[in-house]
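Summary of Year 1 activities. Much of the first year was spent building the evaluation harness for sequence design. The harness presents a backbone, in tokenized form, and records the residue chosen at every position. We chose the following record to illustrate the format because it has been used consistently in internal testing since the harness was completed.
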């Protein structure tokens, strides 16, 4: 039987795994049905404007306050380690992480590549790669620092949350809001991909402006889990992240024990293939912002703390145009990954699972081989198929970690892809 979901980005949802578990007319009755405990989780200040107020009510077998004392938890890859050196303007590119040789679940497999801002200041983000070969089983994770965006590249995941289950294969994403407990299990023997912890404002859909009411990601295509629960006493580890440090405590029962819930603060998934791609039919393809799926805004209008942008299958129909992305320097900082296929501006060295970094004002653009092909191409309409790349773009500069610089994935010869670019100038001599 297929998994059921509720649709609509940011909607007010109500769902119950047992009929009658949701109270009517009040949130916290004196005697809730079935002996459940009401518990509210707030993703915004109580006094946030109504259109930005995020909260849900959960009706659970045991409240989340029932747990043992917290102790420090050491991640094997030391996720707090940043490179203690000035941030270089050097462009960077990395190979995919290898699959582990021993059992390693999703949380333990995370390798932080870059970060910016501050979890304490609630701005910026932290970006990871993962390669796992085991499910989390008795381990559960929650982060008080930010919401998690999970981007599978190889192998499907089953994301168990307090609110229900999300199945995500490559081509899907999942977003787990700040503070929500979740567990990542594998739907296949191995899994690889990317993850981003957004420390700033929660992701929302970008404004459409002149595009009008239809385009980009359709709100109805975002899917939320229906209530399901696990009633299983035992000993479970809860790993909690706060101010970029990790803590662990013991739980006496499985935390996915929510029998019913209602509200607008919940995890969701989205199928990237449903993105309504808008591209040019005249000349000069648009800025990559036209491919924005989700945005984390700042107080500066139009300048994002973090944008999640994709480069999907699309028609290339522009006339008299250099169709790949042009050479540019950008005040924003860009971290890219490739989910499948080939990225049209990097034909070599950027395979699925790779990642790259182009920080503020660092020059970047298509490699020399892609330039040669695009400059000589017959400008007939054609569709780019079998490709899906993404970019996490931020107004804050990304700091590479020690692992990113010295962990064995870095492509030390990345600059070589531009070195064969030739001086093609054939104008008259300067006077």
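For this record, the design step produced the sequence shown next.
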């Amino acid at each position: 039987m297929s998994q059921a979901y509720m649709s609509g980005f940011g909607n007010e949802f109500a769902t119950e795994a047992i009929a009658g578990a949701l109270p009517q007319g009040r949130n916290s009755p004196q005697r809730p049905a079935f002996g459940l405990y009401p518990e509210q989780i707030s993703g915004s200040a109580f006094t946030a404007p109504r259109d930005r107020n995020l909260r849900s009510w959960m009706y659970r077998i045991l409240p989340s306050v029932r747990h043992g004392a917290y102790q420090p938890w050491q991640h094997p890859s030391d996720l707090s380690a940043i490179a203690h050196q000035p941030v270089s303007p050097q462009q960077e590119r990395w190979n995919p992480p290898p699959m582990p040789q021993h059992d390693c679940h999703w949380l333990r497999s995370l390798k932080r590549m870059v970060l910016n801002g501050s979890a304490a200041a609630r701005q910026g983000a932290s970006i990871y790669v993962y390669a796992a070969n085991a499910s989390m089983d008795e381990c559960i994770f929650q982060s008080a620092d930010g919401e998690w965006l999970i981007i599978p590249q190889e192998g499907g995941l089953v994301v168990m949350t307090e609110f229900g289950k999300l199945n995500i294969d490559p081509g899907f994403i999942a977003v787990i809001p700040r503070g929500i407990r979740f567990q990542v299990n594998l739907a296949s023997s191995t899994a690889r991909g990317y993850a981003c912890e957004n420390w700033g404002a929660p992701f929302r859909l970008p404004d459409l402006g002149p595009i009008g009411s239809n385009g980009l990601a359709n709100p109805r295509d975002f899917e939320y889990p229906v209530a399901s629960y696990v009633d299983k006493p035992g000993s479970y580890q809860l790993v909690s992240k706060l101010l970029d440090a990790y803590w662990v405590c013991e739980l006496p029962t499985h935390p996915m024990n929510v029998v019913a819930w209602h509200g607008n603060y919940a995890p969701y998934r989205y199928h990237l293939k449903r993105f309504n791609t808008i591209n040019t039919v005249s000349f000069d393809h648009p800025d990559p912002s036209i491919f924005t799926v989700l945005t984390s805004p700042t107080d500066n209008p139009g300048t994002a703390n973090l944008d999640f942008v994709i480069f999907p299958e699309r028609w290339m129909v522009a006339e008299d145009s250099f169709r790949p992305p042009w050479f540019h320097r950008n005040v924003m900082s860009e971290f890219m990954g490739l989910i499948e296929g080939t990225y049209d501006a990097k034909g070599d060295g950027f395979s699925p699972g790779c990642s790259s970094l182009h920080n503020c004002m660092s020059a970047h653009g298509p490699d020399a081989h892609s330039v040669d092909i695009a400059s000589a191409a017959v400008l007939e309409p054609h569709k780019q198929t079998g490709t899906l790349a993404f970019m996490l773009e931020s107004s804050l500069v990304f700091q590479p970690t020690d692992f990113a610089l010295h962990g064995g994935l870095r492509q030390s010869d990345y600059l070589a892809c531009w070195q064969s670019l030739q001086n093609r100038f054939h104008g008259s001599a300067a006077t």
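The domain at 273-416 is CATH 2.60.120.10 (Jelly Rolls). Quantitative recovery figures across the full test set are reported in Table 2.
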